Backbone:
């Protein structure tokens, strides 16, 4: 087993200990899928796979802590936890650790209206991989896992499905279907890399087909 695989296996084990029993929307399997997607993108786009792989695996490590404390899973306190519990005692330089933590710190920040041209390639790839896992068949499954875990509705008939360009959480938009419109349908056009944009097209189509079928069944048309 080479250095990369040894490193990633150690991180996988540490992440699984924390995310292995969480809800399916942000669980250990999500981290693995993001890792695999990031690996696929890196083969086309380039970038440092050590930084990309470590950040992809650890990006949601503090989700349970966020739920418990109400503090962001990518904030300064969370980054210190990830540094101490995930990246410690590994064959990583301080520069590499800093780059990994920077990717995690910025991966969940969106720039709907104006692209951030200062993003590193590694950040672009991890963010794209995370966003790809939010759409398509897997994205739909994760969405309704979240709906069940947080006891929200699948759909509220008459709910306003028009949104501003910038994604904002609004109390009036609470259903699973609304989340498709307020965020998930926007992701296809907000990928950073060409490789991710290509993959996003099919996943976006899957969501469009799902909503059409969902509404037909909801209203009894089919």
Residues:
């Amino acid at each position: 087993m080479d250095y990369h695989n040894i490193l990633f296996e150690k991180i996988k084990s540490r992440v699984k200990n924390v995310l292995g029993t969480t809800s399916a929307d942000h669980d250990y399997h999500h981290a693995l899928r993001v890792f695999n997607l990031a690996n696929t993108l890196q083969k086309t786009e380039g970038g440092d796979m050590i930084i990309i792989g470590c950040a992809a695996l650890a990006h949601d490590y503090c989700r349970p802590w966020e739920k418990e404390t109400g503090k962001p899973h990518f904030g300064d306190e969370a980054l210190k936890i990830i540094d101490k519990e995930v990246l410690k005692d590994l064959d990583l330089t301080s520069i590499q650790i800093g780059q990994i933590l920077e990717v995690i710190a910025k991966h969940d920040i969106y720039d709907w209206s104006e692209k951030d041209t200062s993003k590193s390639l590694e950040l672009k790839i991890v963010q794209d991989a995370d966003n790809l896992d939010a759409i398509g068949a897997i994205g739909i499954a994760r969405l309704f896992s979240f709906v069940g875990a947080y006891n929200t509705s699948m759909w509220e008939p008459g709910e306003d499905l028009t949104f501003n360009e910038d994604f904002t959480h609004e109390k009036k938009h609470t259903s699973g279907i609304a989340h498709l419109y307020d965020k998930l349908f926007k992701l296809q056009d907000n990928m950073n890399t060409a490789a991710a944009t290509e993959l996003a097209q099919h996943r976006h189509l899957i969501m469009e087909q799902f909503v059409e079928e969902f509404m037909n069944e909801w209203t009894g048309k089919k």
Observations:
- The chain has a mean pLDDT of 91.
- The chain has ten helices and no strands.
- The two ends are 53 Å apart (CA to CA).
- The first helix runs from residue 3 to 19.
